[in-house]
Amino acid sequence: MPDRVSVNPYTLTFGIKPKEYIERLSDTQEVLGNFLSEEPSQQIYMITGVRGSGKTVFLTMITNRLRTYKDWVIVDMNPNNPDMIQFAAAALCSENEFANWFKSARLNFSLLGFGLEVQGAVPIADPQIALEKMLQQMTKHHKKILFVIDEAVPSHQIKAFAFAFQQFLRARYSVYLLMTGLYENISDLQNERSMTFLYRAPKIVLSPLNIGAMADNYFLTLGQSREEASDYARLTKGYSFAFQVLGYFGWETEGDYEKAIRLSRQYLEEQSYEKIWSELSRRDQELIKAIASIPDGSIQSIKAFMSIGQNELNPYRQRLIRKGIVISPSRGYLRFALPFFEQYVLENYV
After folding, report:
1. Are residues 195 and 238 in the same domain?
2. Residue 18 falls inside a structural domain
3. CA 229 to CA 76: how far, in whole Å?
4. Torsion angle of C-alpha atoms 310, 315, 319, 320, degrees rounded to 10
5. What is the distance between the alpha carbons of residues 314 and 230, in angstroms, rounded to a whole number?
6. Pairing of strands 72-76, 44-48
7. 217 and 306 housed in the same domain
8. How far apart, in whole angstroms, are the C-alpha atoms of residue 235 and residue 217?
9. 179 and 30: one domain?
10. Rounded distance, CA 143 to CA 258, Å?
11. Does the pLDDT of residue 3 top 70, yes or no?
12. Can you give the pTM of this predicted structure?
């Protein structure tokens, strides 16, 4: 068993990178490989997945890696700020090194409240023009600027910033964008008519964590046998939040894994599944109830249960798969991607 003097290495807090973390090697390599390339083929990535799939932790891991490179500048955007363009400009202007570059270029931002005034230079009054001038100077100094938006929604301020970012790309500034969000929010942004460049941007749907890597982690951290660790890891179905929750309660119960599973199931329901369920449409909920009620997951049986045809089923099936709630393990079958979700639905909503 692990040393009980130590602090629990797993976390129940969303968005914080825990001590015990399963890295997504393929997704990480795709983003970093592109961004760090001398001739990047992509400067934007959209990261999506169900609640608790590890979007924010993945985002944090990428930005922490890039911060180790001296030519990269990370700007963590506030998606709730009413003027994200001014927010970004203020963030860059607050760095002394960059402010000196702007002064040398005789950029006067006194009207924008940035505290940067250059005597004899005409003050810039528009935040987007100011930000563009800043990016122009930083590109000249061989800096790469990554704008990070976590939990993006199709709000006016995010759309305005995305539209400005498109113009920065056309001007060939060294700018990059990394955005996370739920499937429906990312899709709404990508389908905005004025921002077709987002539609073409690669979208990474976070896949389940590697079961073998989780089993190794539980074996080494919780002191389980190889067989116990494999069984315990399979319970998570690769759901990132479940990996942390099962690890946390496995540690806290000191090897009483039946108790740990009961506590984990309750915690997942209260902290994740109730929210996921509340955000579903009525028709999505009806399909989920049907899937939970059909033990073998047969689509034919699900259609009969709901008294609907294939054409009516397809859009809801596809949406639930894209949301990361349902998977199709083989042709003609549906399964839940979330651990204990079937029991949650049957006990609460059927």
Report:
1. no
2. no
3. 37
4. -30
5. 34
6. unpaired
7. no
8. 14
9. yes
10. 53
11. no
12. 0.90
Mean model confidence pLDDT for the chain: 93
Tens digits of per-residue pLDDT, 235-291? 999 999 999 999 999 999 998 999 999 999 999 999 999 999 999 999 999 999 999
CATH code at position 66: 3.40.50.300
Residue that the structure tokens 């528009």 belong to: 126
30 falls within a domain? yes
- How far apart CA 243 and CA 221 sit, in angstroms, is 13
> Number of structural domains, the chain?
3
SS3 of the chain: the string is CCCCCCCCCCCCCCCCCCCCCCCCHHHHHHHHHHHCCCCCCCCEEEEECCCCCCHHHHHHHHHHHHHCCCCEEEEECCCCCCCHHHHHHHHHHCCHHHHHHHHHCCCECHHHCCCCCCCCCCECCCHHHHHHHHHHHHHHCCCEEEEEECCCCCCHHHHHHHHHHHHHHHCCCCEEEEEEECHHHHHHHHCCCCCHHHHHCCEEECCCCCHHHHHHHHHHHHCCCHHHHHHHHHHCCCCHHHHHHHHHHHHHCCCCHHHHHHHHHHHHHHHHHHHHHHCCCHHHHHHHHHHHHCCCCEHHHHHHHHCCCHHHHHHHHHHHHHHCCEECCCCCECEECCCCHHHHHHHHHC
Whether 15 is in a domain gets the answer no
Phi, psi dihedrals of residue 21, rounded to the nearest 5°: -140, 135
Query: Which residues, other chains included, contact 98 with Cβ-Cβ below 8 Å and sequence gap of 6+?
Result: 73, 92, 134, 137, 138
Q: How confident is the model at residue 24 (pLDDT cuts 50, 70, 90)?
A: very high
Q: Report pLDDT for 284.
A: 95
* pLDDT tens profile 89-145: 999 998 999 989 998 999 988 878 877 777 768 889 999 999 999 999 999 999 999
Q: Is residue 13 part of a domain?
A: no
Strand-pair partners of 148: 76, 178
Token pair listed for 15:
């968005």
Full residue range of the structural domain in which residue 85 is found: 25-205
Calculate the dihedral angle through the C-alpha atoms of 210, 211, 215, 216, rounding to the nearest 10 degrees: -30
